[in-house]
Amino acid sequence: MADQSPLDAYSQVVAGVAAHLTGKVASLRVPQSRSGGPGPRRGGESLGSGVVFTSDGFLLTNAHVVGKAQSGTASFADGTSTPFTVVGADPLSDLAVLRASGATPPPAELGEADQLVVGQLVVAVGNPLGLAGSVTAGVVSALGRSLPTRSGAAVRLIEDVIQTDAALNPGNSGGALADSQARVVGINTAVAGVGLGMAVPVNATTRRIISALMRDGKVRRAYLGLVSVPGPLPAPLQERFGRKTGLRVSEVVPGSPADRAGLRAGDLLLTAAGKPVEKAQDLQRLMFAEAIGQPLAITVMRNGALVDVIAQPSELVAA
User: Fold this and answer.
1) Catalytic status, residue 33
2) Is 64 a catalytic residue?
């Protein structure tokens, strides 16, 4: 008998992940007003997928799937269905937490997206129509991508988005992106183009967001009021700090905490709260509830000199 081919091994992995996860991914039907959010719609409903992630009936999905709705229905591949309520939604991370009223399948295991590598096998599992589920496979094609999101006037980048070539359909939004061990490493959120999909990573930042939604129904974020882009460090600072880039301030919002702290357009941010700042995500990671109203030490390079300022972030309020 011939040795097992690579295709057979690949197929077995994908089939195993599908068998393990398909029953744990629900089809979501969410009543929406006529002006509701994006996504496939049928008779005033938004359709999407959701992943059971606790044994007591909590599901994880995209914020854009639920929109402003407070409830809906989750249907599973075994034919069962249950009403759910929206515990909390966070448009700036495109995540939402739901709570099922009835019984749900055993939960999926959440993995760690920060351990992914480019080229790694991933499997996308959705349930857009509540039938047998939708399964596609591919590889991680890029890491560290950013996806712009908006809530009112507030704009944020979802950091470290996973890019995959596993085919995604709009109804798969909110479904699972899993590794070869069937651990959920991302929540599928967008189709980026032909053959490309994006997923919100499951990592330490995501877990903080999920916990806040479960506890408070919302995510409180701190606000500095500046716009920045990566900028190169001068050679002496590269050697001193052991890195090549910082964050160049391109705009400071008048009257904002950054303005009151004396930050200026042209400043090159080097550290915040004693931690290196190389990209916008580094600053965003510090902008959670515990930073609101607290002193935040920031070191910048200005006109060739190092300058220390103390900012006091306020709470970000969506307009």
Assistant:
1) no
2) yes
User: In one letter, which amino acid is 229?
Assistant: V
d(CA 184, CA 169): 18
Query: Of the listed 27, 49, 94, 165, which one is catalytic?
Result: 94
> Annotated catalytic residue: which of 160, 173, 179, 267?
173
- The verdict on whether 94 is a catalytic residue reads yes
Pairwise CA distance, residues 8 & 5, whole Å: 5
Q: What's the burial of 16, exposed, middle or buried (CB within 10 Å: 0-12/13-18/19+)? A: middle
Give 3-state DSSP helix, strand, coil % of the chain, rounded to 5. 20, 45, 35
> Closest Cα to residue 224, out of 255, 246, 267?
255
In angstroms, the CA 224 to CA 285 distance is 13
Pair 111, 178: CB distance under 8 Å: yes
Spatial distance between the Cα atoms of 248 and 231, rounded to a whole number of angstroms: 5
Q: Which residue, of 219, 244, 266, is where some domain finishes?
A: 219
311 pLDDT higher than 90: yes
Q: Quick one: tokens of 288?
A: 């959670």
Write out pLDDT tens, residues 165-176.
Answer: 988 876 789 999
Domain that holds residue 54: 1-219
pLDDT at 152: 63
Count of domains for the chain? 2
- Pull the structure tokens for residue 252: 């400071």
CB-CB contact of 297 with 273 (8 Å): yes
User: Does residue 163 share a domain with residue 283?
Assistant: no
Domain's final residue, options 202, 219, 236: 219
- The one catalytic residue among 64, 90, 134, 141: 64
Whether 5 and 22 share a structural domain: yes
Question: How many CB atoms are located within 10 Å of the residue 204 CB?
Answer: 11
pTM: 0.82
Residue bearing tokens 């910082």: 246
Sequence-distant (≥ 6) Cβ neighbours of residue 177 within 8 angstroms = 122, 123, 124, 125, 162, 164, 166, 184, 185, 186, 187, 188, 199
